[in-house]
């Protein structure tokens, strides 16, 4: 039996997806189901002076119109915690529909519940709202003078500023200095499935919420806190989730609003956000600007890095995606300073978005590195090797594992990097200017802060089930978990099933920050290994077993059969053992206690990106021709799903580089392109030849299965490689994302 881990197993849930049989949270069929529609504020700042719901209440099929005047008050709003603990993880510390104040455009001002979605939508158009408006801040440029440095960002997890050495002195003394400012448009996640919650109270006063979420227990704990209920009163089911990318990581208002509406109308309520509402209901990547100063000697050896970020946050929360964290440790600079500056604006609190922080912060650093390479006349790859961080530059700790050198080497071979003529504008094919560029990729390894749990059960027919409260939102986690459990139990994958998607299952932290598979995989590995060991113990202790009296350490399991390693003909199957001993099943709860984040190792995943672009010399159109990404994500559980994740990340990087931008209309304080027709994402025609490869590094530090996560590292550096390639093609540096064609005319 060959190991399941590392195989290219197809998604175990793939069949249901392609047949359209997967049930999403807005598709649950319930007796007496009703439909809720949100009405959103059309102003960005001010207060409601009048709200007339009479006509809406009289409309056909309407069961309730809920506003700040008659919706229940929430018990507490949980603090802003970034979901890493599997506790309450509210998206912002503000909850709408509690008073007349308007903090941002799109804030919910009313909920209509009706017997059909069409009737609810119609009734919502009959509500009359009048506002007193006050001036709103929705662009960074409107309020730079009000910037402040917060003590902590990111839900209190990270400091607002950090430093080592003396950066000012080192910059002043540097032989070469690169100084640049980079600007980033706001971005939205745009998963194919908009968020939705269906809430139903059963007759023993227990609430079930079918929710599209990255963490069923995070929804459970958050709604429990908001409604003032014990967690046991709430079950969250999340059977299928159509993509997320961070938009369903924090728990926003809609699951609690659906539950509150269902309690008030005494019927099940479905609340599905529209595509347009997705732009104002689940956070976004904030508009930001980053300033970088690098000081180096004439050979390009870095002595100083100063990295400041200024970004827009909400009226209530000090949120900034952590753009400075990975850039701070990417190279061996002895002198460093990183500072976050925030400006309060009238938007919802920004949130995680795929490679939160690194996608923007590493863009700035890796573009500045390209500029430094040009200034000192060194190949960009060679420059990175000269500044290679053999240990964590922050504290000198060894990396838990690295592999970056191997990534550089493999990518250079796959791409043909070394044939490159470094002179900008040196390659032309007709009207197309051709260029190549590269960038490094780093993404931190975040460890869950609390124990992770999974259950493994073997039935007397020799099949096994493994359970944990995770959801499958497109990462392939159910498939990888089947593989982990199969290997630990010594069973073929077709005799193992993984069950997730409910908060009634053992608690696992929300899958954020590329931790999902490592958190649940470690718990699954421990549960399945302990179950196997208990079965072996039971066999060697059983006088009727052929293994009676054998040394348990000398017993292994192949294809469901426990055998003596020295005599593989002596043994019996799990099924024989359980049937003979009249045991219907055996079950183990496995608990993984993650090592602390500060256990004396630098914790990062590494990789590198290379890209070739063609730029139309007359029209400024940029076409990415090919991309190569090589990453060292630890052990690869499933080549197919891991490579898909990494490739998906690289295409996100392409979108970030060339297409993705949400445009704010500051006159009305609302997003001007809140639709998939106007918010551009890469489609197949934009997708070039993409090569993904992995370097397997052994990592015995991070977790018992040695994996470092693949969900986000693929994004990091991709946009910088493309921007650097555009410079190589045209001789023009790009300081603003996305690189739209007018920037090249
Ligand atoms: Mo992920 S963007 O950290 O949910």
Strand order of the largest sheet: 3-5-1-14-11-12-13
Name given to the CATH homologous superfamily of the largest domain: Aldehyde oxidase/xanthine dehydrogenase, molybdopterin binding domain
- Tally of structural domains: 3
- Biggest sheet, in brief? 7 strands, mixed
Provide mean pLDDT, rounded: 96
Summary?
The chain contains 15 helices and 32 strands. With 745 residues, the chain is of the alpha+beta class.
Structure description:
The protein is of the alpha+beta class. The chain has 3 domains: 32-135 and 189-281, Aldehyde Oxidoreductase, domain 4 (2-Layer Sandwich); 146-187 and 284-446 and 599-743, Aldehyde oxidase/xanthine dehydrogenase, molybdopterin binding domain (Aldehyde Oxidoreductase, domain 4, 2-Layer Sandwich); 448-592, Aldehyde oxidase/xanthine dehydrogenase, molybdopterin binding domain (Aldehyde Oxidoreductase, domain 4), CATH 3.30.365.10. The protein contains 15 helices and 32 strands. It has a 7-stranded mixed sheet, with helices on both faces. A 6-stranded mixed sheet has the order 9-17-16-15-10-32, sandwiched between helices. α8 (358-376) packs parallel to α15 (718-730). Dioxothiomolybdenum(VI) ion (MOS) binds next to loops.
């Amino acid at each position: 039996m060959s190991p399941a881990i590392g195989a290219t197993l197809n998604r175990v849930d793939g069949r249901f997806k392609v047949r359209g049989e997967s049930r999403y949270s807005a598709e649950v069929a319930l007796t007496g189901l009703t439909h809720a529609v949100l009405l959103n504020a059309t102003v960005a700042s001010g207060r409601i002076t009048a709200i007339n719901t009479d006509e809406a209440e009289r409309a056909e099929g309407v069961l309730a119109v809920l506003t700040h005047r008659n919706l229940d008050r929430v018990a507490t709003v949980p603090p802003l915690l970034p979901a890493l603990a599997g506790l309450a993880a509210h998206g912002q510390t503000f909850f709408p529909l509690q008073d007349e104040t308007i903090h941002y455009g799109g804030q919910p001002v009313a909920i209509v519940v009706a017997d059909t979605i069409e009737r609810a939508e119609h009734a919502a158009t009959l509500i009359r709202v009048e506002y007193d408006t006050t001036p709103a801040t929705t662009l960074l440029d409107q309020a730079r003078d009000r910037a402040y440095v917060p003590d902590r960002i990111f839900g209190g997890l990270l400091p607002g500023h950090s430093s080592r050495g003396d950066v000012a002195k080192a910059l002043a003394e540097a032989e070469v200095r690169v100084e640049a400012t980079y600007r980033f448009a706001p971005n939205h996640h745009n998963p194919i499935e908009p968020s939705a919650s269906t809430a139903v109270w059963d007759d023993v006063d227990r609430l079930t919420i079918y929710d599209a979420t990255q963490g069923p227990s995070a929804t459970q704990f958050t709604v429990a806190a908001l409604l003032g209920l014990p967690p046991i009163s709430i079950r969250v089911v999340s059977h299928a989730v159509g993509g997320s990318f961070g938009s369903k990581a924090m728990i926003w208002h809609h699951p609690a609003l659906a539950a509150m509406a269902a309690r008030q109308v005494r019927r099940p309520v479905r609340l599905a956000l529209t595509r347009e509402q997705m732009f104002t209901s689940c956070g976004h990547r904030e508009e930001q600007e980053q300033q970088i100063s690098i000081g180096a000697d004439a050979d390009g050896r870095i002595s100083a890095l100063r990295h400041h970020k200024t970004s827009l946050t909400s009226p209530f929360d000090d949120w900034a995606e952590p753009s400075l964290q990975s850039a701070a440790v990417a190279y061996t600079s002895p002198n460093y300073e990183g500072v976050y500056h925030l400006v309060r604006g009238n938007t919802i609190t920004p949130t995680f978005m795929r490679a939160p922080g690194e996608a923007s912060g590493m863009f700035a650093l890796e573009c500045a590195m390209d500029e430094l390479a040009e200034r000192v006349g060194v190949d960009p790859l060679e420059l990175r090797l000269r500044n290679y961080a053999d240990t964590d530059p922050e504290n000198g700790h060894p990396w838990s594992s690295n592999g970056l050198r191997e990534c550089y080497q493999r990518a250079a071979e796959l791409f043909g990097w070394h044939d490159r003529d470094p002179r900008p504008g040196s390659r032309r094919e007709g009207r197309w200017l051709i260029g190549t560029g590269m960038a490094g990729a780093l993404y931190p390894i975040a460890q869950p802060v609390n124990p992770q749990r999974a259950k493994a059960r073997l039935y007397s027919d020799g099949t096994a089930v493994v359970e944990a409260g995770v959801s499958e939102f497109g990462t392939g986690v159910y498939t990888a978990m089947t593989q982990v459990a199969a290997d630990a139990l010594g069973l073929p994958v077709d005799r193992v099933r993984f069950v997730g998607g409910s908060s009634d299952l053992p608690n696992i932290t929300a899958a954020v920050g590329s931790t999902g598979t490592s958190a649940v995989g470690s718990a699954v590995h421990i549960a399945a290994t302990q179950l196997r060991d208990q079965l072996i113990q039971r066999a060697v202790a059983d006088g009727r077993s052929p293994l009676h009296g054998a040394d348990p350490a000398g017993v292994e399991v192949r294809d469901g059969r426990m055998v003596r390693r020295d005599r593989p003909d002596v043994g019996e199957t799990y099924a024989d053992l359980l049937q003979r001993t009249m045991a219907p099943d055996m079950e183990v709860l496995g608990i993984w206690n993650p090592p602390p984040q500060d256990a004396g190792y630098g914790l990062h995943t590494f990789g590198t990106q290379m890209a070739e672009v063609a730029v139309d010399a007359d029209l400024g159109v940029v076409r990415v021709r090919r991309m190569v990404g090589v990453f060292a994500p630890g052990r690869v559980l499933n080549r197919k799903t891991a490579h898909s994740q990494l490739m998906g990340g690289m295409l996100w990087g392409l979108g970030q580089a060339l297409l993705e931008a949400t445009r704010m209309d500051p006159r009305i304080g609302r997003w001007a392109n809140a639709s998939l027709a106007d918010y551009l994402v890469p489609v197949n025609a934009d997708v070039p030849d993409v090569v993904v490869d992995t370097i397997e590094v052994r990592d015995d530090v991070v977790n018992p299965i040695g994996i470092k996560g693949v969900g986000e590292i693929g994004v990091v550096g991709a946009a910088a490689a493309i921007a650097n390639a555009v410079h190589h093609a045209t001789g023009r540096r790009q300081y603003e994302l996305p690189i739209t064609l007018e920037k090249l005319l």
